[in-house]
Amino acid sequence: SPTNNFATFNSVYADVSGDWSFAVEIAGVGSGNASVTMQEAADGSITGTYSGQLGNTDFTGNSEGDNFEFVLTSQMGSVTYSGEQLPDGTLAGKLNLGGMGEGTFTATRKE
Fold it and tell me: Residue 4: in which H helix or E strand, if any?
């Protein structure tokens, strides 16, 4: 059945490994940029580093299919980034600054 065939395609996943330039927009606060480096393992776990307005910090996360999520700890507390890799290879999603607000982001690979 088509359902069984689809399962084989699930093993082909987007790899978010690399150096990314994040453009972030936070409601009521403004916009900013961050440099993010991610390394995705075969099991979908992500490790990385963040450098931007929230400081410089390491983080961990996970990826499943085209979707990914990571959490970093900043001066503002815990910040969760969740998004997806789009067909053009860019990233897009939302960030949640705990109880401090929400925002959106897009990201492109650094050349």
Answer: helix 2-9
Q: Which residues pair with 45 in a beta bridge?
A: 62
Count the Cβ atoms, other than its own, within 10 Å of residue 87. 8
Looking at residue 89, the DSSP 8-state letter turns out to be S
| Burial class of residue 10 (count of CB atoms within 10 Å of its CB; 0-12, 13-18, 19+) | exposed
Tokens at 81, concatenated = 């980034």
pTM for the model stands at 0.84
* 79-107: pLDDT as tens digits: 999 999 999 999 999 999 887 889 999 99
DSSP code of 44?
S
